[in-house]
Amino acid sequence: MEGEELTEQETALYDRQIRVWGADAQRRLTRAAILVYGINGAVAEFCKNIVLAGVGSLTLVDDRGVTEEALSANFLIPPDETLYEGKSLAELCSDSLKDFNPMVRVSAERGDISGFSGDFYSKFDVVVVSCCTLTTKKLINDKCRRLSKRVAFYSADCRYSSGEIFVDLHSYKYTKNKLDEAIECELQYPSFEEATAVSWSKLPRKMSKLYFAMRVIEKFEEKEGRSPGGVSITDLPAVLKLKNELCEAQSLKESQIPDALLERLVSSQIEFPPVCAILGGVLGQEVIKAISGKGDPLKNFFLFDAFDGKGVIEDISSRDA
Amino acid sequence: MASQQQLSAVKIDMDTIEVSNLNRQFLFRRSHVGLSKAKVARDAVLRFRPNINITPYHANVKDPDFNVDFFKKFNVVLNGLDNLDARRHVNRLCLAADVPLVESGTTGFLGQVTVHLKGKTECYECQPKPAPKTYPVCTITSTPSKFVHCIVWAKDLLFAKLFGDTTQDNDLNVRSSDAAGSSENSKDVFERRKDEDIEDYGRRIFDHVFGYNIEMALSNEDTWKNRNRPRPIYSKDALPEKSIKQNGSVEKNGSTDDPSSVSAMASLGMRSPQDVWSLMENSKVFLEALKLFFTTREKEIGSLSFDKDDQLAVEFVTAAANIRASSFGIPLHSLFEAKGIAGNIVHAVATTNAVIAGLIVIEAIKVLQNDTKNYRMTYCLEYPTKNMLLMPVEPFEPNKSCYVCSETPLSLEINTYQSKLRDFVEKIVKAKLGMHSPIIMHGSALLYEVGDDLEEDMVANYAANLEKVLSELPSPVTGGTMLTVEDMQQELVCNVNIKHREEFDEEKEPDGMVLVGWSQPSSTEKKEENHRVSDVGTSNSSRPIAELNEDAEISTMEETDVVPTKKRKLSTASKNATSPSSSKVPADTDNHGKVEEIDDDDDDDDVVVMLDGNPDNTKTRRVVTSKNLCV
């Protein structure tokens, strides 16, 4: 394919990964622009992975300041407090990330991007969001879908020792090599809103319980006007009550969402670092696949629970009756 | 791991940092290239977690200082090694010290994390791991059929002959029909004559190995009865024009002070390592690389060994392998590909390593908390199986016939009248049994041992023994003899029963001996629910954790991308195992595993997936649902 050759420096640095996905894919990576909105521990890990992989640029947005919770799971934040003065989380992380691979353009921006125009989003190939409300998530997802350019959308949420990744590649065409033959594949992805609107009773019996639990807590946060991740153990009775209401409304057996699971998810507001590494790793790999056009992309939810150690993929799309 | 509460750790790594590490070993920066991994990693971690205690050792984990007493100091050992030999060594030390071991490996998108506890779970060696691939000598010297054979020839024979230690044995002129009488000539042929023009010399070598040797091989009809005949290639045909002095002058290649920047490709104006060169281009590179070795690196000739990071060596080996491949009708490869094969490069990415690292920490924390029921072997798959990308499996019980953790005797079939003690030591004791400092005894007679404090006459005695055939040893070893082999550092004792056998198949059994008795586990009882780990010291989180890395790039089994395989039949609680096939011993695939699905309840919907991996075919999958996994 045409385009610039990889430089000698790039070939040397990326040698081991070029042996995995090829020089062509690497070239595409070096031209990709990534936007990240909201930096939690998992997303910090993701940023590290994607910078090491050698993308073209990474833009971070997160106006929050440093908190204790953030420090315990986000290894990009320098422990030296004197550096925090006047800097947003995004700016601090951006400074750290530049160090990992000087060939990647890492920068930070400020503002509530959910209000930004389509023009802003069209500068990017991939958008990753975390630590945002349900409303914001849907809004940004929607903005990405409205663009004529395909902008891949991902969300990553980590609640204590569990996590969830959502993938939306809209209408995605890619080539697969099967037994030396190149096959054209096409996948249709639903938006987050569409996917989560699928009636629970229609989902397979073996559906990951974590999926439902995440939806309950998400709903709770929205209902109570909480900031993302702002649910704590004291809220548990109210959360369980909401769970029962939702199960009834959705004709789902209450035991499909164990109380113990919900309790565990709200028991701590600190992310468990190894879970951040796992989510950040899977997310990183998905983004690399989407940019390079190589490999079967995940469709459309990935759920991990350290408690049982399973990393599960669920395909939740709207099904017509 | 550093985010957890007060802990102290020890990190052992003998490696220094290279540029190619930087795409995933994120504690290192470009400015650290050349420095000790253990030390730089420690510094990097302290920068974001200043309050923990890490002691780095820039050392080889096989060093005798890291003995059983050393290992006993730790609550848990985490391995991030890149070779089987070191892993086995650590496995044995952890068994001897009774310290839990968390093993792991990655290759590309695949990876796994496993937990090993003495007496409770399988040890790392309960399942035979595929050993690094070796090839029969005749395949390399006479009848290559794959590109890798050509690489091995170019690297271990031709390169070694021309640039390496000439006192070493070299099979380069071994021909299928006649091995005798050529050693005199070969020495003359490969040596450059006094004042011989370098290009003439290069062409002479070219013609000898790609022309003359092939013609000689062709003269033996039998070899080619069922094989494609190679064609001899002469330099006058591959590269007709004698090269005019190109812009290959030494200055063009950068400073003569830096041998590593000298490059035939650069000299010839060839840019991309991804290109597959034509026969002519390969021939040009061959001659140019040879010339550059003699004109810019003459001092090193006679002591060079192949190093994948030596650009000129890689160019030479690529070119030589390609010309040979061309001769034998084998597809040619790019320098990039050849380098990967010759250098045994493991492809690796940051993302898989991050996932595996997270899983290692999760298991390590379980170990520290003595959460024995919840230890898991976790497999990271490239393609989801039954919608699982990360698949946890309960650890299996120890293999009762594992010679490492269950003290089962082994048997060795060998020709006791022809094989020497040296063969036994090199091929069995060191290569197969993985012992580094063995002591070999026949009853009370010491046949051989390794040690620093041996007396001169003992050393001489052992040296003499090595050269004797087994049946002629001072304490003769014949059929029915039992030898005891021991490694003091690993605290491992093995009994080997000797069985005399006359003949061995040269291709299938190139070692001329076969170790048996290390069998697959047969039906074993289900893991008991009520196991408690006996308290080995207290699981006090302030005690140190050892983290061992020979290369922070952790890699899995050297040759196959196959995830360790097992099948488990649930209700009758019997287990079958298949081992990934190695190059020599055919896999003992005994697929009795029956598929059984238990109806799921409202909870406890855990799925355990076993893979039947055979690198030669596509994987077949069996799925079993289990109620025994924890919720």
From TrEMBL, chain A:
It is found in: Nucleus. Residues 14-309 form the THIF-type NAD/FAD binding fold domain. Its main location: nucleus. InterPro entries: ThiF/MoeB/HesA (IPR045886), ThiF_NAD_FAD-bd (IPR000594), Ubiquitin-activating_enz (IPR035985). GO terms for molecular function: SUMO activating enzyme activity. GO terms for cellular component: cytoplasm; SUMO activating enzyme complex. Pathway: Protein modification; protein sumoylation. Keywords: Acetylation, Ligase, Nucleus, Ubl conjugation pathway. GO terms for biological process: protein sumoylation. Belongs to the ubiquitin-activating E1 family. Heterodimer of SAE1A or SAE1B and SAE2. The complex binds SUMO proteins via SAE2. This is Ubiquitin-like 1-activating enzyme E1A. It comes from Punica granatum (Pomegranate). The lineage of its organism: Eukaryota, Viridiplantae, Streptophyta, Embryophyta, Tracheophyta.
UniProtKB/TrEMBL annotation, chain B:
ATP binds at D13, N21, L22, N23, R24, K37, D82, N83, L84, D85, A86, R87. Residues 171-191, 225-265, 503-631 are annotated as: Disordered. Keywords: ATP-binding, Metal-binding, Nucleotide-binding, Ubl conjugation pathway, Zinc. Residues 261-339 form the Ubiquitin-activating enzyme SCCH domain. Residues 524-534, 587-596 have a biased composition (Basic and acidic residues). It comes from the Eukaryota. Residues 548-561, 597-607 have a biased composition (Acidic residues). Pfam families: ThiF, UAE_UbL, UBA_E1_SCCH. Residues 171-184, 245-264, 571-584 have a biased composition (Polar residues). Pathway: Protein modification; protein sumoylation. InterPro entries: ThiF/MoeB/HesA, ThiF_NAD_FAD-bd, UAE_UbL_dom, Ub-E1_IAD_1, Ub_act_enz_dom_a_sf, Uba2, UBA_E1_SCCH, Ubiquitin-activating_enz. Zn(2+) binds at C123, C126, C402, C405. Belongs to the ubiquitin-activating E1 family. Heterodimer. This is SUMO-activating enzyme subunit. The gene is LOC116204067.
